[in-house]
Amino acid sequence: MSERFDCKKEPAGLALRLTAATRLRSVLAGDNFVALDASDIADSRDRATANRLITTALRRHGQISFIIHALLEKGMPGKSGSFEAVLRLSLAQLIFLPDLGAHSAVFLAVEALKRDKKAQHLSGLMNAVLRRAQANSAKYWSLADDLLIPDTFGDTWVDAYGEDAISSFTDALIAGAPLDLTLRDNDPDLIAALGAMPLMGDSVRIETRDRPVEALPGYAEGRWWVQDAASALPARLLGLEAGARVLDLCAAPGGKTAQLIKSGYAVTALDSDAKRMDRLKTNLDRLGYQAETVTADAATFAPDQGFDGVLLDAPCSATGTFRRHPEVIWHRMASDIAGRVSIQRALLINAFRCLNRGGVLLYCVCSLEPEEGEAQVDWALEQLPDLKLLPIRPDEIGDLAGAVSTKGLLRTHPGLAPGGQEGGMDGFFVARFGRH
């Protein structure tokens, strides 16, 4: 959002509230959440508070919507500028972040609206609604967890993963995601310096940290890269000889590309987005890795020579990332998933075309939706007769009981404990094929 507020002579805490409201408003309009950084709020403590307000509002979105419905008898006012964003931030503070103080939640909300010409006429309504919420806050503390997951996904996920898993999904949504790293080299001293815990393979986890990622030990030297434990699984499953030519489709920002290079493959990394490819190159440079890079459409790319392996991390609904991006489960509709299924099929066809006979194709998505996972496997095996399933074995992925189906398909979700550690993992689906 480009809208700016006049922040001159503002009360303490108002500047961060206005900045947080602007960011939340953009997410409510459909943007992905990007955490505020030093360019948005210079003071690290204020920045942390603002990000905490936004993420709490997003993680508790369903419950806050329930509260708003109860408080606003006539519904959300139309053409109300920042009203909804400010209201959601203030309810997040009042109900779920009482340590930040109830008085400041009400006072700063009213002051924020006074600075917005499109919402200043609603400052009285804001005060009244928040006073009512404050008076009834005790009953809102016990809101049902099933409000946290929209109906769009709730029933599907219960059918696919079971009631117990959904309970762990809501816990993971509220807790957020720890920081997982993939190590360039196994170095116990580095792991200790990071305060990390080993997970599976070369993945480690940092539960809490007191500094930005760029300030952690080993970052500047390129000794690791950020990668969720689930995202690190697919690249380990190619099983090709060192020196094999591997195509990484939809490669940016390059975590899997780095893994493939580390495994000794000759890697071609392809993505259609030039800016994302620049980021991939920057990431590889920091790690001291090299790959051929191509900016092209993965659905139409026609190489001069086929590849021994193709890794396709296809565009998807990304519902498996809700621990880090809680907004995705409120942004996605059934029609969105259907559109992505069509794109995935086009990409699968071209990935198959790029694969040599005897080669290995890995298909993966960071989605919890069966339509983007298991159903795509059935479709691919029917439409591409020369493709056969190469079942993934449980012993290939470490201690993840139940993540591999009897058919040999890998399905992770936030209720699983990688390496026996708490904190869950992203929802990821992986299938392995061979071309004969």
Q: What is the CATH architecture term of the largest domain?
A: 3-Layer(aba) Sandwich
Could you tell me how far the N terminus lies from the C terminus, measured between alpha carbons in angstroms?
51 Å
Number of domains: 2
Give the strand tally. 12
- Total helical segments: 15
Helices and strands, in N-to-C order?
HHHHHHHHHEHEEEEHEHEEHHEHEEE
Strand content: 5-15%
CATH topology of the largest domain, what is it called? Rossmann fold
**In angstroms, what is the radius of gyration?**
23 Å
Shape label: globular
Q: Could you describe the 3D structure shown?
A:
The protein has 436 residues and is α/β, with parallel strands linked by helices. It folds into 2 domains: 14-143, NusB-like (N-utilizing Substance Protein B Homolog, Chain A); 231-435, Vaccinia Virus protein VP39 (Rossmann fold, 3-Layer(aba) Sandwich). The chain has 15 helices and 12 strands. The protein has helices at 14-28, 44-59, 61-71, 83-96, 102-114, 123-135, 137-140, 151-161, 163-175, 188-194, 255-262, 274-287, 328-331, 334-353, 374-383, and strands at residues 179-183, 197-198, 203-206, 224-226, 245-249, 266-271, 292-295, 307-313, 355-365, 387-389, 410-412, 428-435. Strands 5, 6, 7, 8, 9, 10, 11 and 12 form an 8-stranded mixed β-sheet that branches. Strand 5, helix 11 (255-262) and strand 6 form a beta-alpha-beta unit. Helix 1 (14-28) runs parallel beside helix 2. The longest helix has 20 residues, at 334-353. It is globular, with a radius of gyration of 23 Å. The mean pLDDT is 94. Belongs to the class I-like SAM-binding methyltransferase superfamily. RsmB/NOP family. It comes from Devosia algicola. InterPro entries: MeTrfase_RsmB-F_NOP2_cat, MeTrfase_RsmB-F_NOP2_dom, NusB-like_sf, NusB_RsmB_TIM44, RCMT, SAM-dependent_MTases_sf. This is RsmB/NOP family class I SAM-dependent RNA methyltransferase. GO terms for molecular function: methyltransferase activity.
